[in-house]
């Protein structure tokens, strides 16, 4: 396979374009907007709707194939496949609903993998920050879509599906040219920190603005002109990250002192064809890890390797240590891999259950307009993703605290949140939804950089996409099999197709609280196990800090 050439543009161009792709990749979060229409038109009960929600989650999170492809092809190939999946899936939604929904939301896995893997490799020493920013935009995308749905599309489910079919592919095709591997800038460039702060600030402004305008839309009767103005301002805020590469072009800064060069992202993709093993990103590689080219290539059979070892042609390869680059088959047999998977499974599986049923939870508790609930969850989900990425990056650098400690804390809070839901006390619905949104977002922003730090960036695409399977599997167990069944059973007891009152989901919330309790215990165990790894990765003598 030919070596992929690094792009000539600064990686900030790709990051600015990635913002738009991540908004497009958040298309699965539209499910609560059109699921009531599906339930009404097709006469589905709540359990069937939750099964469709599971299809939505499977499509969004089954990214094993994108993870494999991202190591073989440039980002535009993944983006093209995501565009096709989005167009074909939503376009035939009414022909084969479940399969079509899987295909349509699977566009999110392709789009997100393309931009996340590329930008993690473009900014290898700011993994937590990059993961928090990009996953944060996916989190706020639900509120962005709600604003477009209510202010431009006039709450028409048909127009929304048409927008998803045509609008999102157009956006991704327009951004495709800018999403490319770049050689990372010098670690001593002080402007990197400022640029990240600017990107985080603009994303926070977007979240606050969208939440405020959606609430205004629900409280006031806005004219069409005002609604369109609100959406236009939202688009301008979305374009703000592109100001960084524009500023770098107009006002270039040339550093007299060059820092040590970073490993470029094309080296990460094609590094297995090099004559020596690629140096780990955070620690110095020892000389005994350098092997000849024929041994590093995945194309050489195991028999050839054994014969070569026996003849003394090559040294016997040692297994990678945590913090170095693992192949997927090497990572999947590690206890830390499955501990991280289980912690993520309990955290996001319980959170996505509430998200998939949020509209019905609001109606059962007497909320007439559930759009505000969805926007609140989306805003807090964004805060959790952005905040966890930035906070964990600070503490891992300053105190070498493993990022997973934040998963532990967030899942403890989730236990309290589910008990608040179950209590159904007056005034607790919005508080519980906000807290859950933050904690749900934390799971994404912590899992991604943790997986890259434990198992490396070379095969990061397939490893983190396998981790993401915890989301749809959790949705299947907790949402489709548990929440849908409990809701329909209580509805039958009430003698109707809809359920009202706290009992509709009380048992579900209690089970989810227990699940987070198990996740908390496993997270503590994982944090203790990987603490020495972080002491090694971020020791002052071995890590090359960005700022």
From TrEMBL:
GO terms for cellular component: membrane. InterPro entries: MFS_trans_sf, NFD4_C, Nodulin-like. The keyword Transcription regulation does not apply. CDD domains: MFS_Mch1p_like. The keyword Zinc does not apply. Keywords: Membrane, Transmembrane, Transmembrane helix. The chain crosses the membrane at residues 73-90, 129-148, 160-179, 191-216, 228-250, 337-359, 371-392, 404-423, 429-448, 460-487, 507-528. Residues 11-246 form the Nodulin-like domain. Residues 333-534 form the NFD4 C-terminal domain. The lineage of its organism: Eukaryota, Viridiplantae, Streptophyta, Embryophyta, Tracheophyta. This is Nodulin-like domain-containing protein. It is found in: Membrane. It is a multi-pass membrane protein. Belongs to the major facilitator superfamily. Phosphate:H(+) symporter (TC 2.A.1.9) family.
């Amino acid at each position: 396979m030919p070596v992929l050439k690094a792009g000539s543009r600064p990686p900030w161009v790709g990051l600015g374009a990635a913002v738009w792709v991540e908004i497009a990749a958040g298309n699965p979060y539209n499910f609560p907007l059109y699921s009531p229409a599906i339930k009404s038109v097709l006469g589905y009960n709540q359990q069937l709707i939750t099964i469709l929600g599971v299809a939505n989650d499977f499509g969004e999170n089954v990214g094993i194939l994108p993870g494999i492809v991202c190591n073989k092809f440039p980002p535009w190939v993944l983006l093209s496949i995501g565009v096709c999946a989005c167009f074909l899936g939503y376009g035939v939604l009414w022909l084969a609903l479940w399969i079509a929904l899987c295909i349509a939301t699977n566009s999110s896995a392709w789009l997100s993998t393309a931009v996340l893997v590329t930008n993690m490799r473009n900014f290898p020493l700011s993994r937590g920050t990059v993961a928090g920013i990009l996953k944060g935009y996916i989190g706020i995308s639900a509120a962005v879509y709600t604003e477009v749905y209510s202010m431009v599309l006039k709450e028409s489910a048909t127009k929304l599906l048409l927008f998803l079919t045509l609008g999102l592919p157009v956006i991704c095709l327009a951004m495709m040219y800018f999403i490319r591997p770049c050689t990372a800038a010098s670690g001593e460039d002080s402007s990197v920190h400022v640029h990240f702060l600017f990107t985080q600030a603009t994303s926070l402004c977007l979240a606050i603005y969208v939440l405020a305008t959606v609430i205004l839309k629900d409280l006031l009767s806005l004219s069409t002109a005002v609604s369109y103005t609100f959406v236009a301002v939202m688009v301008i805020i979305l374009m703000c990250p592109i100001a960084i590469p524009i500023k770098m072009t107009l006002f270039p800064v040339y550093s007299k002192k060059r820092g040590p060069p970073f490993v470029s992202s094309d080296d990460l993709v094609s590094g297995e064809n090099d004559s020596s093993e690629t140096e780990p990103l955070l620690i110095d590689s020892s000389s005994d890890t350098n092997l000849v080219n024929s041994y590093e290539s995945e194309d050489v059979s195991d028999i050839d390797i054994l014969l070569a070892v026996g003849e003394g042609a090559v040294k016997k390869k040692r297994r990678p240590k945590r913090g170095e680059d693992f192949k997927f088959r090497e990572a999947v047999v590690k206890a830390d891999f499955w501990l991280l998977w289980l912690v993520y499974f309990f955290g996001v599986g319980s959170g996505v259950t509430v998200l998939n049923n949020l509209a019905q939870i609001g109606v059962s508790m007497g909320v007439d307009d559930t759009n505000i609930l969805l926007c609140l969850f989306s805003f807090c989900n964004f805060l959790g993703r952005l905040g966890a990425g930035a906070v964990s990056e600070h503490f891992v650098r300053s105190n070498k605290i493993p990022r997973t400690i934040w998963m532990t804390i967030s899942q403890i809070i989730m236990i309290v949140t589910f008990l608040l839901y179950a209590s159904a006390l007056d005034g607790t619905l919005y508080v519980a939804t906000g807290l859950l949104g933050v904690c749900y977002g934390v799971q994404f922003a912590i899992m991604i950089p943790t997986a890259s730090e434990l198992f490396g960036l070379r095969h990061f695409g397939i490893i983190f996409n396998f981790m993401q399977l915890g989301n749809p599997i959790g949705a299947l167990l907790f949402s489709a099999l548990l929440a849908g069944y409990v809701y329909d059973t209580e509805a039958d007891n009430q003698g109707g197709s809809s359920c009202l009152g706290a009992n509709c989901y009380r048992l579900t919330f209690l089970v989810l609280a227990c699940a987070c309790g198990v996740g908390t215990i496993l997270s503590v165990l994982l944090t203790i196990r990987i603490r020495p790894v972080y002491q090694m990765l971020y020791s002052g003598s071995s890590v090359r800090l960005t700022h």
